Amino acid sequence: RKYSTIRRYLVTIGVVHRLLSLPDPTNNALLRNSVTKLRLAKKGDAKQAAEFTASHLNILNEKLSSSSSAKDVRDLAIYYVMFECALKRRELKSLSRTQLELVDNKYLVVLNEHKYALSLEGTVAVAKWINMSQNDSQYVFRGIDRHGNIGKNQLDDSSIYRIVRHAGDLIGGDLSFSGQSTRVGAARELAKQGVRVKDIQSFGRWQSIAMPYQYLGNVESSESEMVKFKSIKNWD
């Protein structure tokens, strides 16, 4: 079994016993030592998405901001929006022009009750793409064919995957980004700024605090919160 799977089993056993007012059988020194040894033995068997950082975004801005290629312009705007708004893939796909508000020369991205102010660089990147892609499509980000023609349909998951992976190719250094990388990076950037985990949860629109805990590297807290949330929400 993977270490993460065993940890989930132990956390579940402990929570069930506590709910029944029974002694927690997982709370003993011998078991903790055994689990620690297992964690060290299996270190690296479960890898988290590579972190996409503000430094990565700056590098991409330097490489792409002066480009006139539709793909480069679109991709840079996507990198900014995904990182600065901690966007999920489905939120990126469905993002419409009505969700963009220009206030004091900066774009606000509206996601339900949340509003996210883009940086000046992010605003410039998005504005450049909006100006380049003017048509009657409701979607902000759309596909581009091999001839550079901008379509009307929203991006699909495979396109987003390629766009995010391409960021690693542009930056270099054997980086392998996934669709979660910008959310991991956004959570950690907020933590560096001293933002509380509860507020990071709100910023990233996570239903459970377990995910920001996991992204910040606090695995035990993540698993404990995940079990509590599952028991309340009755997840499958």
UniProtKB/TrEMBL annotation:
InterPro entries assigned to the protein according to its UniProt record, in alphabetical order: DNA_brk_join_enz, Integrase-like_cat_sf, Integrase_catalytic, Integrase_recombinase_N
**What PROSITE patterns does the database record attribute to this sequence?**
TYR_RECOMBINASE
Would you say which domain of life the source belongs to?
Answer: Bacteria
* Keyword DNA-binding (UniProt): yes
Keyword field: DNA recombination, DNA-binding
**Keyword hit for Plastid:** no
State a single Pfam family of this protein: Phage_integrase
Which parts of the sequence belong to the Tyr recombinase domain? 47-230
- Which molecular function terms from Gene Ontology are attached? DNA binding
Query: Which biological process terms from the Gene Ontology are attached to this UniProt entry?
Result: DNA integration; DNA recombination
**SUPFAM superfamilies referenced in this protein's UniProt entry, alphabetically:** DNA breaking-rejoining enzymes, lambda integrase-like, N-terminal domain
Q: What is this protein called?
A: Tyrosine-type recombinase/integrase
Q: Which organism is it from?
A: Vibrio paucivorans
Upper classification of the organism: Bacteria, Pseudomonadati, Pseudomonadota, Gammaproteobacteria, Vibrionales
